[in-house]
């Protein structure tokens, strides 16, 4: 019988030392926990009608938690031959506040259609926080678009 995987604070970094099967099992067990956390923050934000600032903070937490799910899906989608070189970067995004905000914003843009994504992607690429020490690393989803999608986005 397999040992039950421990899920909790700062456990995602353990993914880097796991086999592919263990990594998938760990992520599969963790996704519902992260989803429940995001839903909890979102539900709590809806209860704070009289306190809009606090509600907005909780909405932000909910979006960041949901972004963790997107990052973990990127981990799952990463080809096995490339996972060794990409995994620590993806796990860094999991813990990075700015990275999670960018994933969340890109998900919102993506749901509003390719035209909005194109306009927003250009804005993000030219944003001062996407330059300098960070470079274009934070434009993960925009950079991961297929060639056809990049053409739609004006790249």
Structural features, described:
- The chain is mainly α.
- It has two domains: 17-79; 96-155, no CATH class.
- The protein is 67% helix and 0% strand.
- The protein contains seven helices and no strands.
- It has helices at 20-46, 52-77, 83-95, 97-111, 114-126, 140-143, 147-152.
- Helix 2 (52-77) packs antiparallel against helix 3, helix 3 packs across helix 4 (97-111) and helix 4 runs antiparallel to helix 5.
- The longest helix has 27 residues, at 20-46.
- The chain is globular and about 50 Å long.
- The N and C termini lie far apart (50 Å).
- Mean pLDDT is 76; it is low at 132-155.
- List segments where confidence is low: pLDDT < 50 over at least 5 consecutive residues: 132-155
Q: Termini separation (Å)?
A: 50 Å
Overall tally of domains: 2
Using the CA coordinates, give the radius of gyration.
17 Å
Query: How does the overall form come out from the CA principal axes?
Result: globular
Give the fraction of residues assigned to helices.
55-70%
Query: What is the strand content?
Result: under 5%
The chain-level mean pLDDT equals 76
Number of strands: 0
| Class computed from helices, strands and strand pairing | mainly alpha
The total of helices stands at: 7
Describe the largest sheet.
none
Order of SSEs, N→C? Answer: HHHHHHH
């Amino acid at each position: 019988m397999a040992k039950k995987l421990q899920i909790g604070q700062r456990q995602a970094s353990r993914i880097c030392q796991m086999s592919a099967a263990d990594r998938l099992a760990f992520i599969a067990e963790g996704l519902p926990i992260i989803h429940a956390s995001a839903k909890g923050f979102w539900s709590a934000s809806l209860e704070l009608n009289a306190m809009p600032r606090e509600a907005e903070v909780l909405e932000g937490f909910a979006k960041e938690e949901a972004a963790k799910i997107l990052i973990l899906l990127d981990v799952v989608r990463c080809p096995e031959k490339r996972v060794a070189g990409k995994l620590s970067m993806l796990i860094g995004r999991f813990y990075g506040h700015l990275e999670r905000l960018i994933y969340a914003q890109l998900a919102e843009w993506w749901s509003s259609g390719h035209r909005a994504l194109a306009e927003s992607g250009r804005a993000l690429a030219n944003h001062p926080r996407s330059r300098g020490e960070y470079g274009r690393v934070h434009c993960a989803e925009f950079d991961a678009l297929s060639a056809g999608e990049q053409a739609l986005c004006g790249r």
